[in-house]
Amino acid sequence: MSSAVPVPGSRGLAVVHATTTPRRPDAAAAPDAGAPALPAGPALRHDAQGRITEVREQVARLVDPTGGLDTRTMLGRPVRELLADLGPADQGAADQGIGGLYTARLRRVAGAPLPVRVVAWPDTHGGAALVLVPDVPAPAAPIVPPAPAAPSHPSAPSAADIERIAGLGHWEVDLATGSAWLSPVLAELLMIDPHATRSAETLLAALHAEDRDGLARRWQALVTEGAPLECEVRLGDGSGRILALHAALRAGTVLGTAADVTARRHAEERLRASNQRFTDLLAVAPVGIALFDDDERLVKANQALCRLLGQGPEALRGRRADELLDLSAESAAGPGPATPLLARPAGSAGSVSWSCTPRALLTRERGAGGAVAEPVWCELHVSVSVHEDGGVTHLVVFTDVTDARRVEASLRHQAMHDELTGLPNRRALTTTVSRLLAGPTSRRTGVLFCDIDNFKRVNDSLGHDAGDELLVELAQRLRDRLPAGCAASRSAGDEFVVVCADVDLHGGLDALSATVAGILRTAIPVHGQLVRISATVGAAVGATIGLGVGDPDSYRADPSGPDIDPTDDPVAQVLRRERATELAGLEPAPGHPGTGDLMRFADAALFEAKSGGNGRFALADEAIMKGADEALRMETQLREAMVNDELVLHYQPVVGADGRIQTAEALVRWQHPEHGLLFPDKFLPVAEAADLLGDLDRWVLRAAVREAATWPGTAPDGVPPSVAVNLAGLLPGDPDFLPVVRATVAESGLPWDRLVLELVETCLADLPSHTLREMNELIAAGVRFAVDDFGTGYSSLSRLTGLPAQIVKLDRAFVRGVATGESDRAVARAVVDLTAAIGQVCVAEGVEDSDQFAVLRDLGVHAYQGWLFARAMPAEAFTELVRRGPIVPETRAAG
Known about the structure:
Layout: E1 4-7, E2 10-16, E3 43-46, E4 52-55, H1 57-63, H2 79-82, E5 83-88, H3 91-95, E6 101-106, E7 114-122, E8 128-134, H4 159-166, E9 168-174, E10 179-182, H5 184-190, E11 198-199, H6 200-205, H7 209-225, E12 229-234, E13 242-250, E14 253-260, H8 262-284, E15 288-292, E16 298-301, H9 303-309, H10 313-316, H11 327-333, E17 352-361, E18 376-386, E19 392-400, H12 402-416, H13 426-437, E20 446-452, H14 455-462, H15 464-481, E21 486-492, E22 495-500, H16 509-519, E23 522-526, E24 529-533, E25 535-541, H17 570-583, H18 595-611, E26 617-619, H19 622-643, E27 647-656, E28 661-672, E29 676-678, H20 680-689, H21 693-708, E30 722-726, H22 737-748, E31 755-760, H23 761-764, H24 769-781, E32 784-790, E33 807-810, H25 812-815, H26 822-837, E34 841-845, H27 850-859, E35 863-865, E36 873-874, H28 875-883
Parallel strand pairs: 25-26, 28-30, 30-31, 31-32, 32-33, 33-34, 34-35
Antiparallel strand pairs: 1-2, 3-4, 3-8, 5-6, 6-7, 7-8, 9-10, 9-14, 10-11, 12-13, 13-14, 15-16, 15-19, 17-18, 18-19, 20-22, 20-25, 21-22, 23-24, 27-28, 27-35, 27-36, 28-29
Helix pairs in contact: 13-17, 14-15, 18-19, 21-22
């Protein structure tokens, strides 16, 4: 512990009686770079703890006149070891804590201590500068041989020099005679002739007029009551200088000092202004700001933080930092240890600043006693300042990131979930399967691909809105009815995928497949109609790909993999762990190499189940896996076939009632190098599964318009037939639809009015305005759009009036019974009448006998397509058919 003696000029400045072990010289603090230089002569500087930080050579000469004392050995030692009996020169002034002049005895290496006067003035860091003036001449130094070229030392400064350096003068007033005496320095400060006769009134006249009355009242109290005088006054010379006056009554004489404190007061004013600016900044800052003390208790909070937390400053004051945390909200947000709010970074010490990840803070509703509200999430920016006395202040800035976290969470959810149904998407599914295959239940991990039967018919007939509504209802059924430990995801379109951590808990893969198929077998009201739904299921289990004892190394389960609870939602568990890994700054685990194969084999089992009819399920076995490998190989070959032009087109004519060929529909075939000529039913499912329909449409469009440009004309006008291309992957509204059609037709040289683009009804319904503009641009150039397969499913005649199409193709389902069934004939008649009324052309598909042709012709059908006229044929045969002229049913065999 230490005791302090006031040093003149500052009540907060202290010369300390140090009882701690002195620091080594090499550990002495460096001089304050911001402090003024020490005056020439015997002067030193000490810090707030009373340790010497800077010392002149003249002080060392006073201590050891032989010159044997190195000033560096004096650094870090307490001033009290150097100056004995240090005390104020005027005890009465000392009792009031005033005065700038001290007396002391300077301890020396040899000889008695030297009486000195000490003039002290403070610095800005709690220390002081001291100038030592011997009261008596120092005794002569012992005679020693002079050192050669010994440096000369300046003589000790005079008392006037010391007062001038310290900005401190002294004065006396004899109350009996009224005469006043001023030291030369004070006379200079007051700009008074130091030799002139002066009185107390003379001194008063040198001050600012506004300060004279106050000083006069204090002077009266001093001389009548003996009350010490202490005040600050301004000089009257207009310079703005300020003097601090201290005076006391001693035996009929007033003794006083006057110190120029102008610089100090200006510095204090700057500090006050700076503090005020800081206070104003706290008040207007849009972010929450708080100050915490050593014990991490809140000392001050600005209004922004009060609004953020829903509490007033008085309610927050004194609260510990950790009491602001909402630990339950943080725990719910993700796993991980809770750390103190103001936990320092590892290895940090002293003054330091850092930022930390968002923390959840407790909030209350506005008003007294408000209930706890939703937590607010804030990023924290902390700055810790360590004061000279060892105290600590935490300045904490709270930046509200609640909305940003909501947006981030929404984006993260969107990245892993299907926008329509809210189920996990394929990315989440793949991650989950990969993590399960790395865990202890890898052999029992099941994947079930579920395809909704006849969903395309619902979509095409009732529209995409109805299809979306149906998918949402089915997704909810899966959420509500799947067994524990299973989770559903939406992979794409009408395909759901169920993943199970342990199929053995549910009776095995076949039992689980039957359960899932049963959940999806239902009737759902959609747009006022009851739609009966079933699903086809294909399933595979981890053991299918060889996981377990004796597995290939690439398929071995990782014994250190994540331990997933097989009775809880596996997708939710995996996504939570992935998020925790991300927050911890760790790299996610690599995907399991068997993930792709397991999902591919389940998809292959689905394909096998669909071949057996609706509502069935199939489990992946050796034969199915072999077929999946074959499908993968066929996909690769199909890609190469499109690049190498190994596909071919056949054409089926569309004829008028007079037998003239009006149009030919282009139908793609694949001349496979191993399997011969393949029809679309063999490779279109492969193209659809591999997302190749768009590429296939581009190939067909390019080849069809190129070949159609070479067709000969037909009688009687000599105009060649048009070519019709059915589109399933390149559709209006796609970014490259219009550019591709434009470029392809322009490159071929085919006239625009000889191109027909066929699409199913739903691709032409409820189109956005920009898509309609693109289609109308093509229509204006001569292109015609055809509604393909009209009449299937739940098509409505009223929709024809709103479709941007010039041709309607009546589906073969109605044509088949038109000659024998009254209902089919009625539908055909309605379609023909409506198309005629709105200026559209009606084409009948699948016309196979003369009775059908006769009925359709009588109904007014404009054109016909079917085996009655010609089957699809290679390009060369079709060109020859065009040259031969009109086709009549009786001579169709010749085609």
